Amino acid sequence: MTPSDVKATLSFSDGSPSMELPIYKGTIGPDVIDIRKLYGQVGKFTYDPGFLSTASCNSTITYIDGDKGELLYRGYPIEQLATQCDFLETCYLLLNGELPSADQKSEFSHLVTHHTMVNEQMQFFLRGFRRDAHPMAIMTGLVGALSAFYHDSTDIHNPEHRAISAIRLIAKMPTLVSMAYKYTVGQPYIYPKNDLSYAGNFMRMMFATPCEEYVPNEVLVRAMDRIFILHADHEQNASTSTVRLCGSSGTNPFAAIAAGVACLWGPAHGGANEAALNMLEDMQKAGGVEKIGEFVKQVKDKNSGIKLMGFGHRVYKNYDPRAKLMRETCHEVLDALGLHDDPIFKLAMSLEKIALEDEYFVARKLYPNVDFYSGIVQRAIGIPVSLFTAIFALARTVGWIAQLNEMIGDPEYKIGRPRQLFTGATQRQVVPIAKRG
Ligand code: SDX
Fold first, then answer.
1. Closest CA to 139 of 400, 388, 398
2. pLDDT tens digits for 297-342?
3. Quick one: which of 91, 278, 371, 389 could link to 398 by a disulfide (CB 3.0–4.6 Å)?
C-alpha cells in the first residue's frame, strides 16, 4: 500500500493534543486512514459496529465497486470469468493471483480430481444426525471433522500444509455436500468419478443412484459451474471476515473454514438464497403476480419485519453484477428445460421490475443481489431449497481459503482482537444471597 501525501489530523475540543494519522492509497478504491497508533497515543478507540467504515486488512484478491456494481477477482471482471473460464480456473486464479496456463490448469485439475474422496469414516458422522437435519447443520459438522483426518496438513504456518489443505477442501466440498443431500433423502452415497468435470462430478454425486446412471446435461453442468464462479469470493463479507478472525488464532484451515460455513448459514448472508426462493414460492401460493403490490406494501411497512429477500446489499448500491449473470443463466437453464414459462421466474422478474421502480427501494438503493435468482436456477436444476446455502459454501470455500492464506502469509498479521465501548455496570460489591432483595 502506498503512503498518501494527504495526512489526517485528529484534534480535540478539550485541548488534548492533536494527532496526525497517515493515509494509504490502494491501487483502486477508497484510501484508508491508519489508526493503529491511535489508542496508544490518545487512549481512545474508534467506534464502528458492523464495520461499515472499517478496512480490516490489505488484500489483493477481490475488489468490489458498490456504486458502479463492479466485481473483480484478481483484477478480472466477473462477467469475463463467468463466460470465458470455468470454476477450477477461477480457483487457481483466486489462490495464485494469475489465471493458469493450459498445463497449469491440467495439473491443478488432476490434483483436485484425485482428492475428491473422503475418508470412509466420514460417513459415520452423518449417522448421528436426524434424516431431516438441515444440510448446513451437517456441513458445519463435517467440515470441522475433516481436521481429524489430516494431521499431516493442519499447520497453518506451513505453506505446503496450506497448499494441500486448499486442494483437499476444494476437492472434498462437493463430495460432502452431496453426502449431506443423499443422507437427508435416504439414498446411498455416490462416489466421485474421476473422468467427470468438477461440476459434472458434483451433479452426478447428487442425482445418480446405484440403480441407474446419471448423465449430466451439459447446459445444467455449465450453469452449476457458473453458480460456483459467481459465489467464489466477495472481499471481506461476514463469513470471510469470520474465517480470517478464526484463522488468526492459528487454528487449522479446516476449523477456520467450518467457522465460515456456520456464519454463511445466516439468512442475512448466504442463507438469503433459500429465503428468497421460499419467499417467491409463498407469494406464488398467495396469488402470484397479482399480489405483488400487497407484498411490497408489507415490505415497506417497518412493523411487518418483512424484507425483500435477495434484495439489498451492504456494499452494492447498484445492481449486483452477479445477479445479472444469474438472471441470464436462469433464461438459459429454463429454456434448456422447456420451462421458459416457469411461474416463479416470471414472478421474480415482475417483482424485480416493480421494486426497481418503487421509490422505497430506489431511495434506499436496494437492487437484486446474487441470491435473488440463484435459487430459481438451482431449483430448475433439481437442487432442493434446503441445499442452496450448502452449495454457496461449496463455492465460497476457495475464496475463504485464498483470503485465509493471504492473511497468514502476511508477516505483519496478528491475532484479531477488537475492543469495545463499555456501557455496563462499574465496579460494585457482591451482596450475600441471604441479604439480596
Ligand atoms: C450476501 O457482504 C457480502 O458481500 C455478502 C454476499 C457475498 O457474496 O458474500 O454478497 C452475499 O449475503 C448477499 C446479501 C443477501 N441477503 C439478503 O438478500 C437478505 C435481504 N437483504 C437485507 O437483509 C440487507 O439488504 C442486507 C443485510 C443485505 C444489508 O443490510 P444493511 O447494510 O443493514 O442494509 P442497509 O443499511 O443498506 O439498509 C438500508 C435501508 C434500511 O431501511 P431504513 O432503516 O433506511 O428505512 O434499506 C432497508 C433497511 O431496512 N433494507 C431493506 C432490505 N435491505 C435493506 N428493506 C427491505 N428489503 C430488504 N431486502
1. 388
2. 999 998 999 999 999 999 899 889 999 999 999 889 989 999 888 8
3. 91
Q: How far is the CA of 314 from the centre of ligand 1 (A)?
A: 6
Cα 304 to ligand 1 centroid, rounded to whole Å: 16
Pocket of ligand 1 (CB under 6 A): 234, 237, 268-270, 272, 299, 307-315, 364, 366, 369-371
Q: What is the whole-number distance in angstroms between the Cα of residue 50 and the centre of ligand 1? A: 12
Q: What is the pTM of this model?
A: 0.94
Residue 77: in which H helix or E strand, if any?
strand 76-77
Q: Which atom of ligand 1 is nearest to the CA of 237?
A: 2
Residue 218, C-alpha cell as written in the block = 451439459
For 267-304, the three-class secondary structure string (H helix, E strand, C coil) is: CCCCCHHHHHHHHHHHHHHCCHHHHHHHHHHHHHCHHH
Q: What is the DSSP letter of 250?
A: T
Return the active site residues. Answer: 313, 371
